[in-house]
Amino acid sequence: MSRQRSHDYSKPYLDEYLGTLTTPVLTQRASPDGGGVVVSGACPRCHGRTETEHRRGVPGTGSKGIFDRLVGQRGTPPEPEPEPLVGEVHFCECGHPHPQLPPDPGFVGCGASWRFQP
Ligand SMILES: [Zn+2]
Ligand SMILES: [Zn+2]
């Protein structure tokens, strides 16, 4: 019953959306500089370790200034914002050039993408 499976390096690259997973394969934590969150874990397809940083308050996304609100106004609950862990599509970024990797892949990995909804 090992939950930790080893990275399947021989799995060919396939741009494949795996759908919405209910198994928590990823976890998130604050990024080192505090400007976003880092979502990391094991790819559900190739089982390689993947890590993606999601920036917060990026101009143009409409979420500008969330940290001003969080820091400046204690007592005022910040507006709930969907966590990247459940709000974003995740892509395998295991960093291993899987066989048949296209010349200009969006992410170096096995091509899997998925959402997570507990
Ligand atoms: Zn993968
Ligand atoms: Zn991989």
How would you describe the overall organization of this protein?
About 10% of the residues lie in helices and about 25% in strands. The chain is mainly beta and about 120 residues long. The chain has one domain (about 15-115). Strand 2 (about 25-30) and strand 3 (about 35-40) form a beta hairpin. It is elongated. The two termini are about 20 Å apart. The chain binds zinc ion (ZN) (2 copies). One zinc ion binds near residues 94 and 109. One zinc ion binds near residues 43, 45, 46 and 112.
Essential attributes:
single chain; 118 residues; mainly beta; 2 helices; elongated; binds zinc ion
In what range is the share of β-strand residues? Answer: 25-35%
Form type? elongated
Oligomeric nature of the chains: single chain
Low confidence ranges: 60-66
Mean pLDDT: 84
State the end-to-end distance: 22 Å
Q: List the strand order in the largest sheet.
A: 1-6-5
Q: Any idea how many domains?
A: 1
Instruction: Work out the radius of gyration.
Output: 16 Å
Q: What is the helix content?
A: under 10%
The count of strands amounts to 6
Structural class: mainly beta
Please outline the major beta sheet. 3 strands, mixed
Order of helices and strands: EEEEHHEE
Unique ligands: zinc ion
Number of helices: 2
